[in-house]
Specification:
196 residues; alpha/beta; 6-stranded mixed sheet
Length: 196
């Protein structure tokens, strides 16, 4: 429901220096699909697609699976409405992936929204950074890596299957744990994403 955050996420994808991408947005219900369509506008970039669900979806895992159904892209990346990518995110992540890894992961800036002195407008304030190799022991203790920082090959996604729709939350943590259980993603030593 964060349409301001969604607009910022979309704008960060539009600003990528690597321009061969498709953004598929899978809202959880028809009301959200309509709101998302309004955010992107009638003259949206043709690389952006809103995949309207046939019914109200149970959770974000189903929405993520809906967005990925039918795509044939050899590489998959995720971005959430509370996140943005650096303009070189895709270029640098894909360059690292070209070395043969099944998945790569970068670091991210962490921000929080604070009220400006006028008491009405919000601004983002950097509160830290997150960057760690997502090994299974680390992920079993806490979700130390955001899925927004992950780029994976389609073969790995197909091998793992979709997001676990039985999980009402933490579907991204589950996905990262399942990837780390197979082989930890290659760490890209750069802070290329920002999350609230």
């Amino acid at each position: 429901d964060d349409m301001t955050g969604l607009r910022a996420a979309i704008d960060s994808v539009l600003a990528q220096t690597h321009t061969d991408w498709e953004l598929r947005i899978g809202p959880e219900d028809a009301r959200l699909a309509e709101a998302v369509s309004e955010v992107i506008g009638p003259d949206a970039d043709p690389r952006i697609r809103v995949i309207a669900p046939p019914k109200t979806l149970f959770n974000r895992a189903e929405a993520r699976n809906l967005a990925l159904d039918g795509t044939v892209s050899p590489v998959i990346a995720h971005i959430d409405p509370a996140s943005t990518w650096d303009p070189d995110y895709l270029a640098l992540q894909l360059n690292a992936l070209a070395g043969g890894a099944q998945a790569v992961i970068c670091g991210q800036w962490l921000t929080q929204k604070v009220l400006a002195p006028d008491g009405e407008t919000e601004r983002a304030e950097t509160i830290g950074l997150r960057w760690s190799q997502p090994t299974l022991p680390r992920l079993e203790n806490r979700p130390g890596t955001d899925i927004t920082c992950l780029v994976m090959r389609r073969e790995l996604y197909d091998r793992l299957g979709g997001f676990d729709r039985a999980l009402p939350a933490f579907e991204d943590w589950d996905r990262m744990s399942r990837i780390a259980d197979l082989s930890a993603p290659l760490a890209v030593p750069a802070l290329l994403a920002t999350s609230d």
